[in-house]
């Protein structure tokens, strides 16, 4: 019997009945994907009723719905702007995510003005331009190759600065690994705030660095187009692509 064939009750806690609100997960097309149908189940346990436990369970289900089960990569955006307060909140949430040695190498450029967004469109691969032309916000997730200069402030207990400063290979690997993670924290923070998001790796990184990051010497890792969800529900994102089964992607040793 494979993992996806086992009854929900036999899965570990995080896969059990509290993963989605009724009807919400279907929006993410989970029922049709082998191995993911159990995530589309509505809450079933006794705690789903009243009281603090029930409230907590409903909140957990709502969190999982907006972060994972119902959320889809955006195929359109509302033209409503993403206000400066929301942008600051995005960073305030993302910066709480963990990084190795608290090195926090990610740097973010929030592209909101019409002229900067127009220049950004020119740096995208042609197949990506139409998808993000309406996005009111483009975020460049980048990294500071000299991130270690901030370590005396970020981690005063450990003398890590010179360790990274004297090893280019180590500092490059550390900057890339952790800025990618921090970009993912920002993606999930945006989802939690109700924003539609489209991460993008199809772009000309040297051009983006030249246009937007040259003064700071930061490097571009990937982009995230963001905006409030489109009011136009006539064209959705299409069926969700399959994911690897537990047996294909995981080892239990
Ligand atoms: C790092 C990264 C880069 C991506 N680059 C592109 C891209 O250049 N163009 C595009 O259309 N989608 C891009 N995507 C979107 C993925 O194809 C999409 O998130 C994935 O198929 C899952 O879709 P779902 O969230 O609707 O299930 C990218 C996603 C990630 C995480």
CATH class of the largest domain: Alpha Beta
Write the CATH homologous superfamily of the largest domain.
Answer: NADH Oxidase
What's the overall geometry? globular
Please tell me the total number of domains.
2
Rg over C-alpha atoms, rounded to the nearest angstrom: 21 Å
Count the beta strands. Answer: 4
Strand content: 5-15%
**Multimeric state of these chains?**
single chain
* CATH architecture grouping of the largest domain: 3-Layer(aba) Sandwich
Class derived from helix and strand content: alpha+beta
Instruction: List ligands, each type once.
Output: flavin mononucleotide
**Count of DSSP H/I helices:** 9
- Uncertain regions spanning at least 5 consecutive residues: 1-20
**Secondary-structure element sequence?**
HHEHHEHHHEHEH
Largest sheet: 4 strands, antiparallel
Mean pLDDT: 87
Q: What order do the strands of the largest sheet run in, or round the barrel if closed?
A: 1-2-4-3
CATH topology of the largest domain: NADH Oxidase
End-to-end gap: 19 Å
Keywords:
253 residues; alpha+beta; 2 domains; disordered N terminus
Summarize the structure.
37% of the residues lie in helices and 11% in strands. It has 9 helices and 4 strands, in the order H-H-E-H-H-E-H-H-H-E-H-E-H. The protein is globular and about 55 Å long.
